[in-house]
Amino acid sequence: MPEPVPAGAVMALSLAAFASGISLRVTDALLPRFATDFGISLAQAAAVITFFSVAYGLAQLFFGPVGDRFGKYWVIACGAVACAVTSLLCGLAQNYHQLVGARLLAGATAAALIPLSMAWIGDVVPYEQRQPVLARFLSGQILGLSVGVWVGGFTADHLSWRVPFLGIGVAFIFISLVLLAVNRRLPLSARKTSPGQGNAVRRMVGEFAQVLAKPWARVVLMSVFLEGALLYGVFAFIATHLHSVFSVSLSTAGSMVMLFGFGGLLFAAFSGTLVRRLGEVGLTAWGGVLIALSLVAVGLAPVWWWAIPACFVCGLGFYMLHNTLQINATQMAPERRGAAVSAFASCFFLGQATGVALVGVLVARWGTGVMMCVGGVGTLAVALNFSRLRARALAQSRSPVAV
Q1: Which of 222, 304, 372, 392 would bridge 246 by S-S if both were Cys, CB 3.0 to 4.6 A apart?
Q2: In whole angstroms, what is the distance from residue 225 CA to residue 57 CA?
Q3: Are 342 and 211 in contact (CB under 8 A)?
Q4: Domains of the chain, with CATH numbers?
Q5: C-alpha separations of 88 from 12, 48, 168, 306 in Å
């Protein structure tokens, strides 16, 4: 029987996910401030999000196999050290181009945290118990996403834009020390590595090829890419939409967007019940419905306060959909779980980068309200399609095999 994992191991990972969530979303509400301070357009300012997401997505192709090779928890701890450095570089940037470059590095280093944490949980927690554990772990990221948007909005109104980046850097210094301490106490079974043979690059390409060879893996990866593009492509502009359309202060707008995370926390608290009652098919379908209703409500709202319930419901719907996709990612290639989860995260963040870049250009022509509606309807289509395909796959797995 394997040795028990230290009680604080998942909590430490959740703490890293919290800081990563802040780093990811802190720039959303800062976009108008960047545009003003640096004398650039909103589309140009959005590059701080796009470059972070592109680097985060592409770096997955590196960290997944590295985590399998050297031990996921140890690589996560080292990634937190690197995040401290890159966050401090963001705060010390002297101009717009240096900030974009530092955000590129920050995205690359943050890539070592959440996907490898999910893969590690997949290694040590049985599948039937995994979804509630993942939901509890992701509560750290959910809180981080919420706090990040609020901190960005508050900073935009009252502080230097450098302050949150410096604070994130200090937080990561503390978190990295905690992770390294926990790693030393892990049992051997939770620190397992997969020594590779032959050329490292060829081996990494081979591992991802094994993942992509599975039809269901391709369905999951395409679904999460589109989810990232359609949902987060417009989500990054909600605070800007409320500020420009209703003249709401950025700190107030950030506070409303913060409710997205509380919707996610509601899902985390009741994930076990929701999974039992709705199953994967119901979670994805209803999650898509809630997301669509919420984003359309924000886009068409005649008054600003519609965003209060809409952001909360959108968070609940997103985690109903996304957590189900994550569960499928941890199991779509168990023998290459690190590479599989990294490919999943890569597609999600490359989708975000694509969506933010496109929306940043299109809002100048169509406006943020129209783009909110487009993102909501598109996400619903993706969710319903995945739900349909998942129902078919489950039906086939239960049907008797012809002899």
Answers
A1: 304
A2: 10
A3: no
A4: 8-185+204-391 (1.20.1250.20)
A5: 21, 15, 8, 37
Residue 273 phi, psi (nearest 5): -65, -45
Provide the terminal-to-terminal Cα distance of the chain, rounded to the nearest Å. 37
Q: How many CB atoms lie within 10 A of CB 335?
A: 10
Angstrom distance (rounded) from CA 217 to CA 193: 23
* 334 exposure class (CB count in 10 Å sphere: 0-12, 13-18, 19+): exposed
pTM score of the predicted model: 0.76
Q: What is the pLDDT of residues 335-391, one digit of tens each?
A: 676 678 778 888 888 898 889 889 988 988 898 999 999 999 999 999 999 999 999
Contacts of 244 (CB under 8 A, 6+ apart): 32, 368
Helix locations, 159-214, DSSP H: 162-185, 200-212
CB 113 within 8 A of CB 73: no
Percent helix, strand and coil across the chain, each to the nearest 5: 85, 0, 15
What separation in angstroms does the CA of 135 have from each of 140, 171, 315, 349?
Answer: 9, 23, 13, 19
Q: Report d(CA 154, CA 197) in Å as an integer.
A: 51
Let me know how many helices (H) and strands (E) the chain has, helices first: 19, 0
Average pLDDT, integer, range 94-116: 92
Alpha-carbon span 128 to 113, nearest angstrom: 24
